Amino acid sequence: MKTVVGVKFKKTNKTYYFNPGALEIEKGMGVIVETARGTEYGEVTMARTEVEDAQITAPLKNVLRIATQEDLAQIQANAQKEQRAISTLESKIVEHGLDMKVVDVEYSFDGSKITLYFTSDGRGDFRDLVKDLAHHFRARIELRQIGVRDEAKMLGGLGRCGCQICCKRFLSEFSPVSIKMAKEQNISLNPTKISGLCGRLMCCLGYEQAYYEEANKEVPKNNAQIQTPDGTGVVVERNLLTKSVKVRLTQNDLVEFRTYTMDELSGKTPVHREKEADFYSNFRVELSSEAKKKIGAGTAQEGDRPSRKRRPKKEHSKEQREHAPEGAHAETKKGSKQSAKKNRPAKDVPNQSQDAKEKAAQPAPGQGKSQSAKRRRRRRNAARAAGNSPLPNSGKVDTMNKEA
Fold first, then answer.
1. Strands 2-8 and 15-18
2. Which of 12, 169, 382, 395 is the most exposed place for a label (fewest CB within 10 A)?
3. H/E element, 194
4. Could you tell me if 389 and 383 are in contact, meaning their C-beta atoms sit under 8 angstroms apart?
5. C-alpha count within 13 angstroms, C-beta hemisphere, residue 236
6. Contact 294/304 with Cβ under 8 angstroms?
7. Cα separation, 166 vs 204, whole angstroms
8. How many CA atoms lie less than 13 Å away from 396 in the CB half-sphere?
C-alpha cells in the first residue's frame, strides 16, 4: 500500500497517481509535478489515498510543490501564447503547401516545448515545417497526428442528447463500438442517428450493451413456442427493456394476444389481468377457415383477420326474366357472374331481345369490309386466269378500254 494523490492534466480526463511526499494536498488544488515530458501543471482530483501496488504504474513520480501565484500567472501567459501560435502555424502550413489541419497547440509549463496536434488524410514530410517552426518560436517542436475521435474530444461540442459529448466530459479512454451493438439493442441502423460528431459510432452504444446481452439470453426469441400460465403460445413480440413478451394463444378457434413478463412465465409472480391502455395488447379474434389452416401450417401472423361474408345474389323479377335474352340467367361453373352482368337487361327496354339478335347478326367493325375485299380479289384472279377484263366496273379498267 502506498499513499498517492490523483492529478488530472489539461488535455485529458484520466487521473494519474503521484507521490505527495510530506505536502498537505487537498482536492481541487493546483500542483506542479514531474512527468516524463518535463515539469507540468495539474489539478488534484483525488486527495491523499492509499492504493494497492498493482494499481500504480512504475515509476511513481513526485509532486514538486503546490502551485503559487507566479505559477498560475505562467499558466495564463502560456494560454495566450497558444492562441497566437495557432494563427502562425496555419500560415506556415500554407507556405509549405501541406495537407494538414491544426487542432490544438499546447505549451509546456516552462515554455521549452510546444506540442502541435493536427489531423491529416495521409502521411507527409513535415521535417521542413518543424525546422521553420523551431527557428520561429525558439523552442522544441513536437508534431502529433490524431484521429477524428481525439479531435472531437479536444474541441468538444453537444451531442444528440443535448449534453456535452461524453469523451470531452468524462471519458478517459475510447472503447471499441461495433454495429452489432446497435442491432442487438434494436436501434435504427441509419448512420445519421447512431453516429457522433466525429462521424464514428456513438460511444454511448456501449453503456447498456452488457444489459442487452444478458436480456437476449433470458427473453425468448420471436416465433418461439413457449409455455405460459394460460397455455402454449408463440412469441410475436418482445421488449428487452422490460423483459416481457407478447404471446399469441389459440384456444377453441379463438386467437388471443397477451403480454407476459419473465417473472410471470417462470411463476415467480402471479399474472394480473388488468385493463391496459393499449387496445392491441389483449384482444380476441374469431378465426376463419383460412386462418385455421394457416395456424395449422404455422404461417399465421398477428395481422391475420377473418374473411368478410359475401352478400347474397340479387334475384331478378319475373318481368325481367321474361324480357331477358335467352341464356341470360343460365349459370355455368365458371364465369356465371360475369355472364349475368353482361346479359342483364334494362328495365325500360322491352324489345332488347330483338335488338340483341340484330346486333349479333351484323358483322363486327371491319369484318364486312375484309370479306368484300376477299371476294373482289377472288373475282379478279378468276378473270385474269380466263383472259378477260378483271373488274368490269372498275374505273381503271374502263380507262384502258377507252384508250384501246
1. antiparallel
2. 395
3. helix 191-194
4. yes
5. 21
6. yes
7. 8
8. 3
* Helices and strands in the chain, H and E counts: 14, 13
> Which residue in this structure is represented by grid cell 377473418?
306
* Sign of the alpha-carbon torsion through 290, 295, 301, 305: positive
Q: Is the pTM of this model over 0.70?
A: no
3-state secondary structure of 119: strand
**Cβ(259)–Cβ(282) below 8 Å:** yes
Nearest residue to 299 via CA among 246, 223, 227: 223
Spatial contact of 238 and 220, defined as CB atoms under 8 Å apart = yes
The pLDDT, as a whole number, for residue 207 is: 92
The full set of domain ranges for the chain reads: 2-66, 74-146, 152-213, 219-297
With beta carbons less than 8 A apart as the criterion, state whether 254 and 287 touch. Answer: yes
| Cβ count within 10 A of residue 87 | 10
For every residue of 348-363, DSSP letters joined together read T-TTHHHHHHHHHHSP
Say how far apart CA 228 and CA 261 lie, in whole Å.
10
CB 304 within 8 A of CB 286: no
The amino acid present at 171, given as its one-letter code, is L
pLDDT in tens, 279-308: 444 545 555 666 666 655 555 554 555 555
